[in-house]
User: Which sequence fits this backbone?
């Protein structure tokens, strides 16, 4: 017998070390969740001072969050390039996890050449030990990432790019001449789409992933 119960919206928490990290890693997936009535929350650990003016970067992140339909952006309060590995960061993430009680968490993958990304990922493993669904996303500095979970973002890709372009001070900062962050994201989406047998996708590696079968 098919259930007629109306399901409550899920709470989705995405964690990033810097403004625009979340949009690169899982922006399309967040847009799809929001469009399906789920609640989106972001936590950004720094204001990106090593990459630009912090007031500008904070404002860009808040504008981007509106495009992702996020309810709230939480700020970790750490300095860019100085996100610590250890108890302090674990407790910071734990505090937000207790506040939101998310059904899904998305965060950087731990094999990454940027120490802020790496430290946040490693601390999140401990801080989310009681969260059922925790998935790692990739970014331009991620290494050895072989996703096994894919989300088709064909209908969300343009809006993901719009959310990235809200970070206007950063879109050209790829260290690759003539290539913008939007170019990198589109290329990655097509590559992961091919792996997932769709046109465009975001790929994830699960720390834990529960498959729920309704009654």
Assistant:
């Amino acid at each position: 017998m098919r259930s007629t119960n109306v399901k409550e919206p899920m709470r989705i928490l995405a964690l990033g070390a810097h403004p625009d990290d979340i949009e690169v890693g899982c922006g399309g997936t967040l847009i799809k969740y929001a469009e399906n009535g789920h609640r989106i929350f972001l936590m950004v650990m720094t204001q990106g001072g090593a990459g630009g003016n912090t007031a500008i970067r904070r404002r860009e992140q808040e504008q981007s969050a509106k495009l992702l339909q996020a309810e709230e952006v939480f700020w970790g309060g750490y300095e860019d390039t100085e996100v610590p590995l250890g108890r302090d960061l674990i407790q910071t993430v734990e505090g937000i996890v207790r506040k939101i009680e998310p059904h899904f968490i998305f965060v950087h993958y731990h094999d990454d050449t940027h120490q802020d990304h790496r430290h946040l990922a490693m601390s999140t493993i401990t801080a989310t030990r009681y969260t059922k669904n925790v998935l790692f996303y990739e970014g331009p500095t991620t290494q050895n990432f072989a996703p096994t979970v894919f989300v088709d973002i064909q209908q969300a890709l343009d809006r993901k790019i719009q959310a990235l372009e809200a970070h206007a001070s950063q879109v050209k900062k790829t260290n690759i001449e003539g290539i913008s962050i939007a170019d990198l994201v589109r290329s990655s989406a097509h590559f992961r789409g091919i792996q997932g047998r769709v046109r465009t996708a975001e790929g994830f590696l699960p720390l834990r992933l529960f498959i729920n079968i309704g009654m």
Residues 100 and 178 are 40 Å apart (CA to CA).
